[in-house]
Design brief:
The protein is built from seven helices and four strands, in the order αααβαβαβαβα.
Length: 183
């Protein structure tokens, strides 16, 4: 059985999603009704089913006064795997955007021409993220496999920081030899 505080916690999450525009008023009403009438954890988890977290975290030593080109060890293997352990049941983590520099991504006048490497355990979830990222001109999404591969894609950030510092640029990655249609 779930407690009133469990129900209220999920209801708060749903209200936050509504405020952020991720739920319509009708969806909010339906899900709040289900949350407040839930009797089991499985019923509450079902309200989160299909939610995705796109994790772009990179455990760089710079976060603890070290060098930005050094990685911190994460017991779970990667920051994304750690995030997957931390999110509520029913929420899936997809790792991505580690190799795209924030500057060019934020500059709408800057033409992009690079790949976004994503990792996750379910192809359907990765396809949803790929559709979102792929809507940005100049970004191509490459499926790198299961979430455990995030330990490698995350570490590419440190490499790109080193390259960008050396050449004073905002270099990205482009994987060659792939088929024209990836999704």
């Amino acid at each position: 059985r779930v407690s009133d505080s469990d129900r209220e916690s999920v209801a708060g999450e749903l209200r936050d999603h509504f405020a952020a525009g991720r739920l319509s008023e009708g969806e909010l009403s339906d899900r709040l009704g289900a949350a407040y009438s839930a009797k089991t954890a499985a019923e509450l988890s079902a309200l989160r089913a299909g939610q995705l977290v796109l994790d772009a975290t990179v455990p760089l030593a710079a976060a603890v006064s070290g060098k930005a080109t050094r990685m911190l060890g994460v017991w779970q293997g990667s920051a994304a795997q750690q995030a997957q352990e931390m999110v509520p049941d029913g929420v899936t983590v997809i790792a991505g955007l580690h190799t795209v520099s924030a500057g060019p991504l934020a500059d709408l006048a800057h033409a992009l021409n690079e790949d976004v490497l994503i990792c996750g355990d379910r192809r359907d979830d990765k396809a949803r993220v790929a559709a979102l990222i792929g809507s940005i001109d100049g970004l191509r999404v490459v499926d790198c496999g299961r979430l455990e591969m995030a330990r490698i894609t995350e570490s590419l950030t440190a490499l790109l920081i080193s390259i960008n510092a050396r050449y004073k640029t905002h270099a990205g990655l482009r994987v060659s030899g792939l088929p024209d249609t990836l999704w």
